[in-house]
Design a protein that fits this description.
The chain is mainly alpha-helical. Helix content is about 70%, strand content about 5%. InterPro entries: ArsR-like_HTH, HTH_ArsR_DNA-bd_dom, WH-like_DNA-bd_sf, WH_DNA-bd_sf.
């Protein structure tokens, strides 16, 4: 499911649609307004987002509003968070190493002071 989520998020139009849906539900007509695209083109993007589980479509009389579904985004965030933790730990180890070991610059400065 993660592959489908990232594939859906790869397109800037779909990310913009999700950003809009984060503000609240919207119809296809409302979602297509800011784009220079036809409603059928927006509908294709919505189908990709729906297949990825990122949105759902309800029924409200004649309207079929789209809603953001947070589950797949949370799963993607959790996966990314694991790598964020890895990099943070790496940076902390690097910081500790740099604090505990004299740098070449300090050694050069010490050598210059001895020559004066």
């Amino acid at each position: 499911m993660l592959d489908t989520t990232f594939a859906a998020l790869a397109d800037p139009t779909r990310r913009a649609i999700l950003r809009r849906l984060a503000e609240g539900e919207a119809t296809v007509t409302e979602l297509s307004a800011p784009f220079a695209m036809s409603q059928p083109a927006i509908s294709k993007h919505l189908k990709v987002l729906e297949r990825a589980g990122l949105i759902s479509r309800g029924r409200d009389g004649q309207r079929r509003p789209c809603r953001l579904e947070a589950g797949p985004l949370k799963n993607a965030m959790d996966w990314i968070s694991d790598y964020r933790d890895y990099w943070e730990e790496s940076y902390q180890r690097l910081d500790a190493l740099l604090l505990n070991e004299p740098s070449d610059l300090n050694e050069l400065n010490d050598g210059e002071e001895d020559q004066s």
